[in-house]
Amino acid sequence: MSTAFLLTTLVVVLTPGTGVVYTLAAGLSHGRRASVVAAFGCTLGTVPHALATVTGLAALLHTSAVAFEVVRYLGVAYLLYMAWSTLRDKRALVVGDDGAAADGPPPASRVILSGVLLNLLNPKLTMFFVAFLPQFVPAGDPGSVAAMLRLSAVFTGMTFVVFVAYGMCAAAVRGHVLGRPRVMAGIRRVFAASFVGLGAKLAVA
Questions:
Q1: Is residue 100 part of a domain?
Q2: Which residues span the domain enclosing 180?
Q3: How many domains does the chain have?
Q4: Predicted TM-score of the model (pTM)
Q5: What's the pLDDT tens digit per position in 79-123?
Q6: Has residue 3 been placed in a domain?
Q7: pLDDT at position 168, please?
Q8: What percentage of the chain reaches a pLDDT higher than 70?
């Protein structure tokens, strides 16, 4: 495992994207546990892309414009849905006497599913793995498949750790903003705008 791979992976996972925005939103809205669950869901959504790359399925998206466009616009549609849901969901603005959201956090299964779909419907992740992994595997190496699986596992693990760190930071400041409806409403609009922006970026990719 080269230092170059580890540093490159760290830079990539630290760069804010869809998963980071979703994890931050979960941490701010529902606390530490929800942020960890969201981080897990987003990380889980990267696994199919890595497996597609290793097994050669990524070639379909790389060579078929139709397949790429279908997945891309499904991703755009889901990001816009997340923006709408973020604006519509008012639970985090209803605070109980103990400072927690009155209706409680959403089910873990729903948080995980949303996180998985956010990354699963992003064909750029598959393209990233196609361009990224082969750089760190010697050409003609008979153990290239095993090597790419190991690299993918490290990438996935680092993604989860970084996302959890982002979520914990968001959860740490949650108490300072949760009881302020105007602040929370503003934050909600920022996250919704972020999802719209990410959707637009994916649409024109």
A1: yes
A2: 17-203
A3: 1
A4: 0.74
A5: 787 788 767 765 543 333 333 444 556 788 888 988 898 888 887
A6: no
A7: 93
A8: 81
